[in-house]
Structures are given as structure tokens and as C-alpha cells.
Amino acid sequence: MVKNLGAQNSIFNQYISEIRDSVIQQDSLRFRYNMERMGAIFAYEISQQLEYEIKEVTTPLGVAEVPVLKAFPVLATILRAGLPLHRGMLNLFDKSENAFVSAYRKHSKDGHFNIQVEYVSGPDLTNRVVILSDPMLATGASLALSYKALIVKGKPLHTHIVTLIASTQGIDHLKRNLPADDVTLWVGAIDDELTAQAYIVPGLGDAGDLAYGNKI
Known about the structure:
Helix 1 packs antiparallel against helix 2 (28-47). The protein is built from six helices and twelve strands. The chain has helices at 12-20, 28-47, 83-92, 141-150, 168-177, 207-212; strands spanning 2-4, 52-59, 62-69, 74-79, 98-107, 113-121, 129-133, 136-137, 158-167, 183-191, 193-194, 200-201.
């Protein structure tokens, strides 16, 4: 299932427009903050899909019955670009445990690349709801491999994958390689084109570089 938040009119699209804008992108603080705000919006939307139970809360004047989460999801992200998005979700799911995946493109001299997963850290995911975030879904290879690396730590009850900008090719790759019944994909916008170097067009560029500076 694919849920596209950008397909409906909301303040969310204001933030999408700003992270795409090549002038506004020059302010890395604002770029990170916009990612963080969108992470919070995604978290709110996903929260409506989770299970709740009634809790009695004692107020100064009586007892109120309030529906609260049965369990907080595990928040997972791909280093480094996913950190601001992850932080936005953690601001809402403030009692969540966290998981991190180190995955990157290893380029060869002929211009091709392979996805390398070097490091995975996180709790037991067995029967847990997991939210895995990465700002860009280009080919889909890094997200698919990161998902498979995470589930070595236990099979989740359900996984929500969150990405800001997705390509149609990346979405198709996830549909072919991830279990349809166990995964929901949340996107902010869908673009049709990938370059030969697997960058999304119009996309926004390299989210990690824009958030934290160029890497060598």
C-alpha cells in the first residue's frame, strides 16, 4: 500500500516546495528543520494506524478516560540523510526505541554502484511496529536492503516505510522485493524520472549533503 501525503492539499506541501527550492536549500538549518517538520507530520498520520487502549488519567477534578498507544513503534533510519526525518518522528513518538542502518552507494570507476550495508543497531523487532525512514527513494535498493538487514533482529508485526521524494522505479522495486501485506509505504511526492546516475528528477539533489555538508 502506498500513501502519498503530497496528493492532498495541506501545509505539508509547503515544506516539500522548500526542500526542493535550490535557493532555500542553501540554508542547511532550514533544510534540516523542514525535514524534521515533515517527519512529525508523517508520524501523526501513521499514529492513526496504530492500536490504542483506554487509560484512566486522574485530573485535579476527577478521572478522564483517554485512548493511548498500546505500544510505541520502533523508529529506524538510514544514516546519515535520514536523521532529521527520524528526529521529527521521535519528537512525537517520544517513548520509542530506535534502530539505525549504515548504508551507502559504493561507486565503481565505470559509473555503476552497489549498495553497501555496514552496520545495524537496534532492539528486538519481533512483533513490533517499525517505521523505517529515508528521505529519498531512488532505485529502492538501499531501502530494500536496509529492511532486510533490520529484520535479522526479528520479524516486525508491520513496517511503515517513510520517504520524502520517491521515484516510480523505486516504488516498483519495493513492491517486487518487500512483502506487500507487511509493509506500508508513505511518500511526500512521486517523481517519474531517474538519471543514469540514479538521481531523482526533479527530486531535490543529495539530501545528506544538503543537510550536513558535502562528503568526500
